[in-house]
Amino acid sequence: MNKEVTGFSKLSKEEKINWIADRYFSNPKESISILKQYWNSDESLQMLHDDFIENTISNFYLPFGIAPNFLINGNYYSVPMAIEESSVVAAASKSAKFWAVRGGFKTTILGTEKIGQVHFLYHGKSEKLEKFFSETKPKFFSNTESLTKNMQKRGGGILDIKLKNKTAELENYYQLHATFETKDSMGANFINSCLEQFAKTLKEEALLYNNFAEDEKDIIVIMSILSNFVPNCVVRAEVSCKVEDLAEKHIQNPREFAEKFIQAVKIAEIEPYRAVTHNKGIMNGIDAVVLATGNDFRAVEAGIHAYASRKGTYSSLSHAKIENDIFSFWMEIPLALGTVGGLTSLHPLVKIALEILQKPSAQELMQIVAATGLAQNFAALRSLTTTGIQDGHMKMHINNILNQFQANITERNKVKMHFENHTITHAAVVEYIEKLRN
Fold first, then answer.
1. Is 280 an active-site residue?
2. What pLDDT score was predicted for residue 389?
């Protein structure tokens, strides 16, 4: 179809589905049936999902699983994860169990500061603007009191506001750079509301400032928006044990394993091509928990990858060492998360996830998420430096292949038994299924 559609958002849900089906599918009835299969039979619950976004036509399901045995700061957690990748939950669970008998994960909050900026253009002398800002600064706080009152009661609010001169990078460009504490909420709406009031105050006060010439009074606000780069909202997660205690079924020589593991991490520290895949493995764990708990995984991803590049080149988020015969593996990452507001109070499965995690505060959730990311990274590196990544991954992937070919119970059992002693590849599994059927 090569024609613009108008008024699509005003159509009913049924009309939208019929429109899509008639224009894009050779079998409209079948496509409509599939879309409706994923509707919730509870009409009020389906309506809730419909209202999350615009132009909803169905629900897109992801598996919602549990990785048990996470020992974090002396407390056991069963971690909810929403993800489609076959080996992730299994790897996280295996890693959690491995470290639970070796002291578990230690996590520490290093900071919870979040950032927002008012980006504006000013045509005039910077000294005048600095003096104006110094005199006006109290009004930025007083003019946002109605917005910050409730947040202040919970111990949060605006921490500081600074004027930043960015004219060396872009002509006439300045910022109001504000820092915030938002406690258990992620705080995006709170921060953006404060920033928009800062922008209003900035423009109004500039017009009244007698030391400005007329052209200097015309401050042009470009935008007011929070930043998802939060280098001072950081959590540390770590594991450690004696080198000899690393021994297990696939680690017969723990010293050799530890040294090889450390080299694998060092490669990711200096080689961006490896670092991207290395950090992607960390994000397998992080994103799955962030999504299950109703947080914004796109914001988390953007902030973490920026943090991985903060020294001028993209590098590993995790690090490892042997010192005094102790193996240590750790990671520091920025995580701006919330446990109140947004989807946390609306999505039924998000409520379930937070219940499973024993109703954590935002700081506790930061620690759980970081530990899960580190566990995922350990599991990947252990596989890479011992049996290889494909062995475990393909064992989990067999189910996807069997589902693709609609294998029955007998076929499933025969396939799994056969590949206990044969190398698993997609082609090999398909060939064996076809052999069974012929």
1. yes
2. 59
Of 181, 184, 205, 296, which residue is the catalytic one? 296
Query: For the chain, how many residues are written?
Result: 438
* Phi, psi of 81, deg, nearest 5: -135, 135
- What are the distances in angstroms from CA 100 to CA 74, 140, 254? 9, 49, 18
pTM for the full model?
0.89
Q: Are 274 and 385 in contact (CB under 8 A)?
A: no
Average pLDDT of the segment spanning 203-207? 98
Find tokens 């988020």 and name the residue: 317
Q: Is the pLDDT of residue 122 over 80?
A: yes
* Catalytic residue from among 280, 305, 321, 414: 280
Active-site annotation holds for 393: yes
Residue tagged active-site, from 85, 218, 245, 248: 85
Three-class SS state of 412: helix
- Among 94, 119, 393, 397, the one annotated catalytic: 393
Each residue's pLDDT tens digit, 379-407: 999 999 997 655 555 666 677 788 777 88
Poorest-confidence range of 50-54, 68-72, 165-169?
50-54
DSSP string, 144-213: THHHHHHHHHTT-EEEEEEEEE-TTTSTTEEEEEEEEE-TTB--HHHHHHHHHHHHHHHHHHHHH-TTS-
Half-sphere exposure at residue 434, Cβ-oriented, CA atoms within 13 angstroms: 6
Distance separating the N- and C-terminal Cα atoms of the chain: 42
The C-alpha atoms of residue 435 and residue 429 are separated, in whole angstroms, by 10
To the nearest 10°, the Cα dihedral for 78, 84, 87, 89?
Answer: 0
Q: Can you tell me the distance from the alpha carbon of 91 to that of 163, in angstroms, rounded to the nearest whole number?
A: 46
Helix H, strand E, coil C: the string for 103-136 is: CCEEEEECCCCEEEEEEEECCCCHHHHHHHHHHH
